[in-house]
Amino acid sequence: MIYMDNAATSWPKPDCVYNGVTNCMKKYAANPGRSGHGMSLQAARIILYAREMLCKLFNVNDPFRMIFTANATESLNLAIKGILKPGDHVITTRMEHNSVIRPIVELQKQAITSTFINADRKGGIDPQDIKKAINARTKLIVTTHASNVTGTILPAQDIGKIAHDHGITYLLDAAQTAGSIPMDFSTLGIDLAAIPGHKSLLGPQGTGILYIAPGIDLKQLKEGGTGSNSESLTQPEFCPDKFESGTLNTPGIAGLAVAIRYILYETQSKLNAHVKKLETHFLGEISNLPEITVYGHIGQHLRAGAISINIKDRDSSEIAEILDTEHKIAVRGGLHCAPLAHLSIGTQRQGTVRFSFGIFNTIDEIDTCIGALKRIVRD
Fold first, then answer.
1. Alpha-carbon distance values, 119 to 116, 125, 189 (Å)
2. Residues β-bridged to residue 192
3. What is the pLDDT of residues 348-368, one digit of tens each?
4. Is the Cα dihedral 267, 298, 305, 156 positive or negative?
5. Which residues contact 6 (CB under 8 A, 6 or more apart)?
6. Which residues on adjacent β-strands are paired with residue 307?
7. DSSP, residue by residue, 172-212
8. What is the phi/psi pair of residue 259, to 5°?
9. Does 15-266 carry CATH code 3.40.50.880?
10. Percentage of residues in the chain having pLDDT higher than 90
11. pLDDT at 342
């Protein structure tokens, strides 16, 4: 199988990730921070180490601003529902994943209003449209960093400046960019960032992170045991305990810690250059096929991760199935949990066939994919 679905979850993982999870499970998978024995202390140390690795990757000073969740969806729900209150207004875009859209739509039941900024046919957003949508009740702006449909990169730094100029909190959905595009949280202009551990960070599934900048007042979604202030009947108010009730996914976080260490050792620039080389080769070849439509920008500096295509008017799920069953190529067809994005680029009926390459894909695999598409076009 040639795996081309890394925008959903990266595979395979570096060997150190498998070893990190297994080593934790076998040697110290106790409850971190709940006991004073050696295994519990070692579990707590690996979780702190993972926070420190995240800080090093994203240039953050305080490791306790990195909150562990089950996935980016949980991070987004925590951020959106922890900020907004009845009467507030939130601005987002039509390029968002349902992990942003559905929480916002649900909050409309609580008298929270929303504005969805239109995108162009390539999935781009004009920051000035966001600025024009701000009103006296606007509390939050939330945007993706890069579309999971078109790969189009949004101008996060420009949006962050607009938000801060108006005293508004800015939440970035970094699901498609964290780990693949170098990011400095100290200069990017964000207040909150939702990050999956299992995509370009190369960690196990079941791991997510919410970065919370200093000074951001966020309500927790759940209460419970934290291993701290156990004598109190109320939830701790300090990070990360305020947001991490219950037992953390220590084996997953152990795998994530070594995955980030791997990225830092190999360097993001080197890993990203390899993926960009694959994408450039793929786009260069398929762009010469008139039967294939490529969505989003062709220029690599304007896109990240996902490459969505269609073959004439054929159903995207049908093409994905042919690639899987006849060519042993794993891609994703359909709407990719982003229906408004497909409305924006005109593919709401057909969906798209999404290719997303990872650091372990090769030029030979790309050529196989190109050959398969040419054969489908001929057939």
1. 9, 5, 22
2. 171, 212
3. 999 999 999 999 999 999 999
4. positive
5. 199, 200, 305, 356, 357, 358, 361
6. 355
7. EE-TTTBTTB---HHHH--SEEEEESSSTT---TT-EEEEE
8. -65, -45
9. no
10. 95
11. 97
- Distance, CA of 311 to CA of 316 (rounded, Å): 8
Helix (H), strand (E) at residue 135: none
Q: What is the spatial distance between Cα 238 and Cα 342, in angstroms, rounded to a whole number?
A: 40
Query: Do residues 125 and 95 lie in contact, with contact meaning Cβ atoms separated by under 8 Å?
Result: yes
Global pTM reads 0.97
If one looks up domain 2-10+268-378 in CATH, what number appears? 3.90.1150.10
> Looking up tokens 């039967």, which residue turns up?
291
Which of 87-96, 160-169, 223-232, 353-362 is the least confident region? 223-232
Show Cβ contacts of residue 373 under 8 Å, excluding neighbours closer than 6 positions.
286, 289, 292, 309, 311
256-283 in b/e form (b: 16+ CB < 10 A) is bbbbbbbbeeeebeebbebbbebbeebb
Residue 320 has pLDDT above 90, yes or no: yes
**Residue 18 pLDDT exceeds 90:** yes
What tens digit of pLDDT does each residue of 302-312 get? 888 899 999 99
> Token pair for residue 331?
């891609």
Whether the Cβ atoms of residue 347 and residue 150 lie closer than 8 Å to each other? no
How far is the C-alpha of 70 from the C-alpha of 44, rounded, in Å? 17
pLDDT in tens, 65-90: 999 999 999 999 999 999 999 999 99
pLDDT score at 227 = 87
Distance between start and end Cα atoms, the chain? 22
Q: How many residues does the chain have?
A: 379
Query: 268-286 and 250-266 are packed helices; what angle lies between their axes, rounded to 10 degrees?
Result: 80
CB 67 within 8 A of CB 212: yes
pLDDT at 79: 98
pLDDT of residue 333: 98
Q: Where are the domains of the chain?
A: 2-10+268-378, 15-266
